Sequence to fold (683 residues):
Amino acid sequence: MSLHCCREENPDDIPHEVAHELRFHCFSSALPPREVRMVMPGGIALDVGGVTRKISARGNERGLRGLKRSWRRHWQLYLLILVPIAYFIVFKYVPMANTIIAFKDYNVVDGVWGSDWAGLKHFERFFNNPVFWPLLRNTFLLSAYVVLASFPIPIILALALNEVRLKFFKSTVQMVTYAPYFISTVVVVSMTILFLSPRLGLAGHVTEFFGLGSIDFLSNPDYFRHIYVFTDVWQTMGYSAVIYLAALAGIDPTLYEAARVDGASRWQKIVNVDIPGILPTAMIVLVLGVGNVMAIGFEKAYLFQNSLNVSQSEIIATYTYKVGLLSADFSQAAAIGLFNGIINLALLLGVNAVVKRLTGNGLW
Amino acid sequence: MSSTLEERPTRTRKLRVPEPPNGRKPTRIKDPLVDRVFMVGVYILLTTFLLVVLLPLIYIVASSFSDPQAVSSGRVTFWPIDFTLEGYQRALSDNSILTGFGNSLIYTIAGTAISLVLTVAIAYPLSRADFWGRRGITIFVIFTMLFAGGIIPTYLVVQNLGMLDTRWALILPQAVGVWQVIIAVAFFRTSIPDELYEAAQIDGASDLRFLITTVIPLSKPLLAVIALMYAIYQWNSYFDALLYIRDPSLYPLQLVLRNVLILNQAAPGLDAAAAFERQQLASLLKYSLIVISTVPVMLVYPFVARFFNKGILVGAVKG
Fold:
């Protein structure tokens, strides 16, 4: 009996044999999956061992009825998902609610909800603080620099790797450039400090060799951004290149053939086929990068910071940490954090909208 | 003497793949000059990338085996000078470093296990098309990527839960990564055929049973990817410990490293040494410490990299 014949029938009329046949096929896995699927639309009832079960491939029904039905079928999954949802509520959403202390005078005794309202006092205090503009400037410049430097380099790396036909060379370069991604921030920073320490470090020997004397890179605030950005590029370029390599592998081979017929050189092929091919991917990576502009890593800036370079290395995140935990001014710190988060969100939405309008690709 | 019949196929083969005349390499169509010049540029560029990444790493390893005096006078380049294991001996005989190492192992193993369970628990239901509320929950999860409470509000939660200065503070607050959830959902959706689920249902298996007996065994590659992501994150993280941990006996390795390497606090085991020697020993210790703390990660790296690529690619699939 053909399985197709039961498609239009009333579920209750399905003959017993069909159920058996379907079951047989499902477990023998002899049927290509698609064929089994064709039986499903609309949902059919099957009599299995005296128990009637309803199978349905239909998607969600909206509203309470859908929930009820889904609950009856998937109550175990609902119980299962409750645990991670509780995690998200406790560790992600409760903190969001806790940002309310930015509008209050938080004190430990009364807690988050019991403390007195303070209006916009903490925001005003932050905006009027002489550190506000330098802080904003530092955060913004550092982040923009990171985005600008770490956006093109992985693309260049991927395009170059894509040209190489020597498998061994290609995989060696990929393996090696990928490796620093796994080294911890603490280690990368301390390596950098060791290299750049005057007299003792490698850089000291190099600068002395060229007669520049020993330069103390880390205590000069002007070098901070370059050090930060290039250690970042060093650490992530191999990792970031992978996604572009995948995009390059996905380019339609007929485009290359057409380019060859047209007599394109390798360079022209890159410009006219490869780059347009990875553009959508690149745009998404760029949007994500810009979305991170204000959320830039606390970790590394804090590790690189010392009393001499603080004029450029103090960014909003490090400042929040100091105000909040070292001086225990929770409300002020929450206000600064909230300000930062909102700018971050606005940037992400804005850039996504712009990119979407220009290229048709966005995050959503 | 061969017949014409036998010769013919040989000739056609010759036409397809030109056989080289004796002793010469097969002739290939050469790239145009412009392309050959371009390729030289590509190789130079890639070699530069390779060296830029590799040389610092070699230098660190070479220095860690060298006499500190040779390091500070700049004689060490990419091969150990005056080979010594003293740095390693000192690093490995120090209590705070050993404690940190042990703690990091605990955090990594426990944290990864918990993260993995929670990630599967949320990702599997979200991958089922007939799970009511899927869209809502997905938005609920993704939103935390766009906007976060920030350092202090999160700290308050940890404080209120009484987790300050406990191991939980390093394991729970960062337990689930949104990115990992996205990867897992995409994997379940594409790799577990609906028909399998339907078959299990007909057979009377519950959702949970299906998950445990069928989905999880079929998802080993995925589980490996996200477990490694979580493990690397845990092993390398120091920031949570900086926020939540005061008790040095709970410090993870990275925080110990930060204290020794970056803050120069109490370079261990050097009390009797003279100031100059002390400084040199401290620098020796630093190189060895960097190597020691990175070795576990680098040991798994060759296996990890392949999986990581897969993870990135799955994660890159939109939707």
Q: What stands out?
A: Chain A touches chain B through 114 residues (CB under 8 Å). The first strand of chain A starts at residue 44 and ends at 48.
